[in-house]
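During the second year of the project, the team shifted from modelling isolated chains to modelling whole assemblies. The rationale, set out in the original proposal, was that interfaces cannot be judged from single-chain predictions alone. As a representative example for this report, we include one of the complexes processed in the last quarter. Its constituent sequences, exactly as entered into the pipeline, are reproduced here:
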Amino acid sequence: MRNKIITAQQAVDLIPDGATIMMGGFVGCGSALSVIDALSKSGKGHFHTIHNDSSKMNGPDGDEYYSWAKMIHNGQIEGYIGSHLGTNPEAVEKWASGELKVDLVPQGSLAEMIRAGGAGLGGVITPTGVGTLVEDSPLVRGKVNYDGKDYLVMKPLRADVALIGAYKVDKLGNVWYKGSAQNFNRVMATAADIVIVEAEHLVEVGEIEPENVMTPGILVDYIVVREGK
Amino acid sequence: MEKSLIKPFIAKRVAQEFTDGMVVNLGIGLPVLCTSFLPEGIHVTVHSELGIVGQGPAPDEANADPMHIVDAGGSPSSIVAGGAFTDSAESFGLIRGGHVDAVVLGGLEVDQEGGLANWIIPGKRMPGMGGAMDLLVGAKKVIVAMEHTAKGNPKILKKCRLPYTAINCVNMIVTEMGVMDVTPEGIVLREYNPEFTVEQIQAATEAELIISPDLKPMA
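Output from the structure prediction step:
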């Protein structure tokens, strides 16, 4: 069996400048904290990122900028696709000043667009966003009417790299998430060319019962055990 | 009405719309207060769009697990016995699929065609829509809970001037002045706060109110 275990720094080495990166997590909760921390110190940038929100200040891990809020602060992100910036005033300022290019989509559409990207679907047909500014988004393919109801056709999303935050992972990459921390992680683990799981605990194969595997290990290319958090 | 009393007053009235066993999603701020005013014997399941079915109250510091359980605003949260965690795709499937009975949200503007604006004031306040657009489109009943005016200016309009969060979505509006239903004919005032006259309520409303023949005081 191939050894998937690498360090946070080795994970950063896999991510080139300008990469499109999906990051699972919700206001930082459930994100790959040590890989993102190492990435924020790497000097790399021009990233295009996909994550639900802009995270926040004063993380529960004790860091001043929580999770990808560090990358926003450092100006490493050029373009962002997500649903919400309001938890991080700095992100809103950077959007307003034009420093951060933002494409907002509704949160449920975002989840399905990523799912579609990972599941081989050509788009998502959703009633959400009809009659709103979302209709003008470059991520909308068009508007259709089926059975008398209007829908927007949203593009599928994929990324070069997905950074997944987990509680437990076995050595094959099978994942179990704790609490509400699964959020966007499960869909993102299906929708990137390189999938890196950072987990709080590494366990032996078989310790996570097959019925309880939430992301199958076949989707996972690399494993990082959380460092210094 | 005294400012500090307005939010609990509105939340208490909204809570009367809940029936036993309902699945409800409550926006941040005023809407989450509703669970404090549930009528005797009424139990609801609170859905939180980041993936909690059966959300519990905000925990004290000793019981908080902010690395693993947060609410839709990113603050520590909890789950009740019998609850379930889902991922984001399934959570929004529950919303759009009509499995959430009611959503209670605040509003910046509501119009007589049931349009709601609450996600952006271009150039001024730009947090993003988060899950609001899906909730408005998917929930079976949409209740807007908000103060009737903003700095004296009407928020219930003929047509929203701010960008829409969703069109044709609002079923009911509860403010400190009254309870209104959004119908195909327009906005029907069906309950009023006796601290105000119907004329005062209309004067604080841009949309033309249809006065229900069964108009009664807010209980």
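Chain A touches chain B through 50 residues (CB under 8 Å). Chain A has six helices and twelve strands.
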